[in-house]
Design goal:
There is one protein chain. By secondary structure, the chain is an alpha/beta fold. Helix content is 42%, strand content 13%. It is built from 15 helices and 15 strands. A seven-stranded mixed β-sheet has the order 4-10-9-8-7-5-6, with helices on both faces. The chain has a four-stranded antiparallel β-sheet with strand order 11-12-15-14. Strand 2 and strand 3 form a beta hairpin. Helix 2 runs antiparallel to helix 10, helix 3 runs parallel beside helix 10 and helix 11 crosses helix 14. The longest helix is centred in the C-terminal third of the chain and has 23 residues. It is globular. It starts with a helix and ends in an 8-residue tail after the last helix. 49% of the residues are buried. Bound molecules: D-serine (DSN). D-serine binds next to loops.
Amino acid sequence: MTRDTQIFDIIRQERERQTRGIELIASENYVSDQVMEAMGSVLTNKYAEGYPGKRYYGGCEVVDLSEKLAQERLKQMYSAEWVNVQPHSGAQANMAVFMACLNAGDKFLGLNLSHGGHLSHGSPVNFSGLMFHALEYNVREDDGLVDYEQLEQIARTERPRLIIAGASAYSREWHYERIRRVADEIGAIFMVDMAHPAGLIAAGLLKNPVKYAHIVTSTTHKTMRGPRGGVILMGKDFPNPWGKTTPKGEIKMMSQLLDSAVFPGVQGGPLEHVIAAKAVAFGEALQPSYVDYQKQVKLNAATMADALLKKGYKIISGGTDNHCMLVDLRTKFPELTGKVAERALVAADITSNKNMVPFDSRSAFQTSGLRFGTPAITTRGLKEDLMPWIVSLIDRVLSDPENEQNILKVRNEVNAEMTKYPLFAW
Ligand code: DSN
């Protein structure tokens, strides 16, 4: 077969883009060579519908070993009792939880997407908002923190069956205990989606939601630094409180419902090559060097947030406890939209994403915010001393976002510095 030069040239271009720039998208990271090796392995050839030891195809005895290893390592990372490593993504992990816990039309409560929440926590254009009755809580306008009083009040009045904590743009620690209390009071299931801070949690730098929630979901590729994918965890199995029964009238345990919801509920064959890559990433997360990495992610984020504040930018909630921060551009540049800011920064090889800020006056296509995060640049080897320099580059671009000469100068500085931080061993 002739080599597909078209696609491999595109991959080469993407590799160059990733290498020459400063990557500040809070949900992105660079995986290790071993994670990529496992993803690009012969395991991609195998069909393995079912679970280890209970498959619908022959020849699964080898992939059973790697899936079991992934399960054991993930349990160890979070002191979990039960896990499922098959979800293809975080959204699919969440979908499986909805399927296991709710009936179509049931009420659930999640953080408003425009206040930092996630699409799969109730957006009207997502399955969660389309098939279920989504209720939302906000962050407070004055301090940008989750409005726990509002959450409790809605929970008591509306009595949702499921309450979700977790966000895609929230830079503070959560009061899981408080949410669990109200969930217990009304008999709701409490789920935490820890996709963003999962790596910091595994390193013991943030509270472990497995101790507080009935069910925890995550992606594996953000701060965790594994392949793209999802997982579900529980600290303790429990009978489904809503009394979903089998055709024989038995009440099922939540682990059985979740396993059936992932497969055959929302997925077919698991991606065994990705599951092997997850196992590699989980193995890396159990090494002492992972804690050092996550401490540096947090230090870099705190230093970047300080530098932004010193330059006059507003950060929602005033800073960060984790790897990310949400900047409200309106304080420093009232006329500048997130859309224009994102484009100007990309032209300077600094990648971030436009993001709505709480109580935004602009639409999701324009936005007034930018979200920054440090997992990727920390993997690259950048330390806290470079954070003020990155912020000064951002500031130069945003101060004159249409000035191509200015942007070119910044880009040259970015490219010169980043050649000092090689990315791939091959
Ligand atoms: N798209 C992800 C993020 O950027 O946070 C969430 O799924």
